[in-house]
Write a structure and sequence with these properties.
There is one protein chain. Helix content is about 60%, strand content about 10%. The protein is built from nine helices and four strands; from the N terminus they run H-H-H-E-H-E-E-E-H-H-H-H-H. It has a four-stranded mixed sheet, sandwiched between helices. It is globular and about 50 Å long. The N and C termini lie far apart (about 40 Å).
Length: about 180
């Protein structure tokens, strides 16, 4: 997949500028020298339930559809953890596996089209950000400048997130998420 299709033009330009900065290049070298395994899988297995295809075939069908659309080839393990808040996260690959963690409230309150949007959005983070030096540089600059994630890039990720262009599912997903934040 052409990752640049998922990025806003401004984000692509910012990444190029950031990677040319000598301070950023030096920081990236130090980060790569000190890259320690996160042991994410061990933590997830201790604090969440791993959802196998046999336990949740519908969810795994959604993941499969999103993987195919976004051309994600790395194996994915899916977990659910107890939480009243709507949340999902795609965690940096470790030992050749990508991890997606979903809050129990998402599975309880979102329908399949909404879950597909969330899963596609999370996989979009993996495709868009990856674990290469450009994503590390962008994160580093965002921290240094105290900036949040680029809204333009997020909008593009979200527009691809549903994996099939189901705008209504995306709108419902955002509506539920926003309503939950204000309860």
């Amino acid at each position: 997949m052409d990752i640049e299709r998922l990025r806003a033009q401004g984000d692509s330009q910012l990444t190029k500028e950031i990677l040319q900065d000598s301070t950023i290049q030096q920081a990236l070298r130090k980060l790569s020298e000190n890259d320690m395994p996160l042991r994410v899988r061990r933590h997830l297995l201790a604090t969440a339930v791993r959802l196998t295809p046999g336990m949740s075939p519908a969810l795994h069908d959604l993941i499969k559809a999103c993987r195919e659309n976004l051309e994600v080839t790395i194996p994915i393990e899916t977990y659910v953890y107890a939480s009243p808040q709507f949340n999902a996260v795609c965690i940096k690959p470790e030992e050749g596996r990508l991890f997606i963690a979903l809050s129990s409230s998402l599975l309880d309150q979102f329908d399949l089209t909404e879950l597909k949007f969330v899963l596609g959005h999370e996989l979009g983070h993996s495709v868009h950000s990856g674990s290469g030096p450009d994503s590390q540089a962008v994160r580093l600059v965002a921290i240094c400048r105290d900036l949040s994630r680029s809204r333009r890039g997020r909008v593009l990720q979200e527009s691809r997130g549903d994996c099939q262009g189901d705008v209504q599912a995306g709108l419902r997903t955002h509506g539920k998420h926003c309503a939950a934040k204000h309860d």
